[in-house]
Design a protein that fits this description.
153 residues; alpha/beta; 6-stranded mixed sheet
């Protein structure tokens, strides 16, 4: 089951604290306009994405290119002074890249990061949360998982 990332409150309550306090993990399917999906706190990216694509994880490992359009992102949220504060967004590193060898184009990494930031800005604009001003100045994107043009498609 995939759940679109359209409610920060739902994300915090049901998907928050994934692997560490205050973390929400999502995948961005850059091939879809509204393709941002929450990762359940008890699931790994590898199994979630395999289910999302409808193939076994072993097939992704055999052909990592088939998941190159799926980019992970982690959102760090703090609960301070009675409100939610977005403190960090990190994009491009999960078990997909580490365990299965998935690599992304630079455009996919930049697009996924920007889409997550844009979605978070909507929550800020609605007054759902506040944002650490450094978030927009920092681009925590893991370019070490960049797919080079010489790699097979």
């Amino acid at each position: 089951m995939t759940l679109p990332f359209d409610s920060l409150e739902t994300a915090v309550v049901y998907f928050g604290d994934r692997k560490k306090d205050g973390r929400i993990s999502v995948i961005v399917d850059v091939s879809k306009e509204d393709g941002i999906y929450l990762i359940p706190r008890d699931r790994e990216h590898v199994t979630f994405v395999a289910d999302y694509l409808g193939i076994p994880a072993e097939k992704i490992k055999e052909n990592p290119y088939c998941a190159a359009h799926i980019v992970p992102s982690h959102i760090q949220i703090e609960y301070k002074q009675g409100s939610l504060k977005l403190s960090d967004v990190e994009t491009g590193e999960s078990g997909l890249e580490i365990k299965l060898g998935v690599r992304h184009t630079q455009d996919a990494l930049l697009q996924a990061h920007a889409r997550v930031l844009d979605e978070l800005r909507k929550f800020v604009d609605k007054g759902v949360c506040v944002v650490d001003e450094n978030i927009c100045k920092q681009n925590k994107i893991h370019f070490e998982y960049l797919r080079h043009s010489r790699q097979l498609k």
